[in-house]
Amino acid sequence: MKSSILKIVSIAVLVLIALMICVFKIKDKPVKVAILDTGINNTSVESKLVSKEFINDSQKDNNHGNDIAQIIESQNKIIIYDAKVLNNDGVGKVEDTIEATD
């Protein structure tokens, strides 16, 4: 039950981000998108990537962050701000997410 709710919320967030990119896209200027997730490997995306880890976990084996970044980068000219707030198991602290949002 918990994982199905998480999937629904993830899909809703992706749709919202895609709509925001379409609405706020300015001609020839990159759109900045922050992804608070498990982290993104710079080799998995073609867009400019700015990364910062908010948790003490050096592993980036969980591909969820990479997959989300690739879906979002299907839009032209974006800059991705990678805020790693979840560990390899998809677990994180609320405090880290708040800090990343700030």
Please name the defining characteristics of this protein.
single chain; 102 residues; alpha/beta; globular
The tally of structural domains comes to: 1
Query: Total number of β-strand segments?
Result: 3
Strand percentage, roughly? 15-25%
Distance between the termini: 31 Å
The biggest beta sheet is recorded as: 3 strands, parallel
Q: What would you note in describing this structure?
A:
39% of the residues lie in helices and 20% in strands. The protein has one domain. The chain is built from three helices and three strands, in the order H-E-E-H-E-H.
Quick summary of this structure?
By secondary structure, the chain is of the alpha/beta class.
Break the fold down into its secondary structure elements and pairings.
Layout: H1 2-24, E1 31-37, E2 48-53, H2 64-72, E3 78-84, H3 94-101
Parallel strand pairs: 1-3, 2-3
